[in-house]
Specification:
The protein is of the alpha/beta class and 184 residues long. The protein contains six helices and six strands, in the order βαβααβαβαββα. Helix 1 links the parallel strand 1 and strand 2. It binds ligand FNR. The site of ligand FNR has 14 residues, from helix 1.
């Protein structure tokens, strides 16, 4: 069976990000038959229709190209104020354009996330899932990865140090591989 190529995107720009750490852990736990590469959103500017009309900035063009080249996209989202952080939503907004030929159109996607709180980005993930209805992306319904009290689950080097989290992250990635193959 052919390999599934997944693009991983973390919705936090900070170096010590728990979500970037979760994405790194996912890269290490990728199952056989899946490759996972990451895209850094640092060079994706704020969406501006005037800028878009003049041509996608390089960071946006690179993001869209990376999505198109991937069989699926894994969004690793923090939660801010019970919602999707602007960095993540902004990237999705760019990738949702142009409406009828968007990089995210008919693309399998997955959502995971980590936060120090008790709900592990549940509300942020729900909100992001809604956006994928409009982008016509095939968002995997189950399983879910909600890494709660995430600051206790990574060591000082940002390595995932919680066996249970590693176990269900591995299962999630295998499910995403199978989900993606449905659309390949
Ligand atoms: C947060 N945080 C947070 N956490 C949460 O579980 N639910 C929330 O609604 C919020 N709201 C919120 C708003 C703002 C403006 C900030 C800066 C933070 C805490 C957040 O989960 C925590 O800072 C994470 O560490 C952010 O993710 P990264 O950067 O570690 O990936």
């Amino acid at each position: 069976m052919s390999d599934v190529h997944v693009l991983g995107v973390a919705g936090s720009l900070r170096l010590g990000s728990l979500n970037r750490a979760l994405l790194r852990a996912a890269m290490k736990l990728s199952p056989s038959g899946m490759t996972l590469e990451t895209f850094d959103l640092a060079d994706v500017p704020l969406y501006n229709g005037d800028v878009e009309a003049a041509g996608d900035p390089p960071g946006v063009a690179a993001f869209k190209d990376a999505i198109r080249a991937a069989n699926a996209v894994l969004f690793v989202t923090p939660e801010y104020n019970h919602g999707v952080p602007g960095v993540m939503k902004n990237a999705v907004d760019w990738a949702s354009r142009p409406a009828r030929d968007a990089a995210l159109n008919a693309k399998p996607v997955g959502i995971i996330g980590a936060s120090p709180g008790a709900t592990g980005t549940a509300r942020g993930q729900s909100q992001l899932r809604q956006a994928f209805e409009f982008t016509n992306s095939f968002c995997m319904p189950q399983p879910e990865v909600l890494v709660f009290r995430a600051h206790e689950k990574f060591d000082a080097n940002g390595e995932l140090a919680d066996a249970k989290t590693a176990e269900f992250l591995g299962k999630y990635l295998e499910a995403l591989r199978v989900w993606t193959l449905r659309f390949k």
